[in-house]
Amino acid sequence: MRLLPAVVTASLMLAVAYYVYIPLPDAIQEPWKLMMLDAMFRTTMHLASLKAWLGFDHYIKSIRSSTEGFEGMMQAESGGGVMPGVKVTDTTFAGIPVTVYEPPAGGEGHLRRGLMYYHGGGWALGSAKKGSYDTINRMMSDELNTVVVSVEYRLYPEVHFPVPYLDCLATAKHFLSPEVLASYAIDPERVAVAGDSAGGNLAAAVAQEISLDDTMSVKFSVQALIYPVLQALDFNTPSYLQNQYIPVLHRTLMVRFWLQYLNVDLSLQPQLMVNNHSSDITPELRARLDWSVLLPPKYKKSYKPVTGGKGAQGLTKEVPGLLDVRASPLLAGAEVLAKSPRSYILTCEYDVLRDDGLMYARRLQDAGVTVTNDHYEDGFHGAFSFITWPFEFEIGKRAIRGYLNWLKNNL
After folding, report:
1. pTM here?
2. Is-catalytic flag, 197?
């Protein structure tokens, strides 16, 4: 009987280890920390699914409440990212909530940089002023003498595409107006737009629209895209297949985020996973995301293009958002890309979205745009945000430093 507690304890420890452990590439540093993070996310999603099945709450709302609580804890432990002298104000731009970070330096006669930031989270999660976003924006404001505007655009399930995009576009136009820039003492020649993941998607789409708008006297001078999601027609690129089980963004979750954003029935997920939804697109359109041409050979490996079958033919007509450049900036024509501002694109080797970023970098370069592709061979999706306790990764610190250094030299 004395052995029973020891046996139970050992069994529980083995069960926990089995649940937490996932195989990871050798190049990923601090693997057990990433495994623990992934286990927490998986647990949160399982509990959210259970609550939704029981009718207690919406799946995404349950995840949102859990992650927001976690972000609040990280922010408290890191001291809230406090930077002496940085003024933080909650206000609205064009009716959309924003948080404005103003640096201590500057003043009359001293113009500052300006940057508009859109947070990630699959168009469903995250907040402009919580967790690591708050910390990063404070760092940016303090170190680079920048007025940072972080946008709290509306999210799924309350809204679908194109509402988040329209929110971001409205705030960008407001921010870029000469009157607003002057009120914050911002140099109109030094204004950037940036975002990570889904926020990178929104930043790219907004940058394209602003570049084409002849009514805008001030346009973005640079764009900084952190592992952006840029297309929804090919979920079988080499990076989607190579990294489909790598934390924290699994392939199935990214497809689900797209279905939710575009207001598509979730039962169609299996069709999208095999590219059936894009089997009937035109050759011209397919060439804009043809990874067999756009990717460097080292990333193609032995993967083959998957063009899909007839299971979901016609879906692009039923869901026009699939072909809308406001949702999928990678689909824009070369004449649009040519007007894009100087670009910084951060990509990670172990990220399903790696090839979206690499293909966009190539197409921008082919269109004559100056592009810096900052690729992290040991990086994974979300690394940019993991810079505070208890999930503080060295790769995250390096990614933040690379982002800030590029902006310091190019904005």
Report:
1. 0.94
2. yes
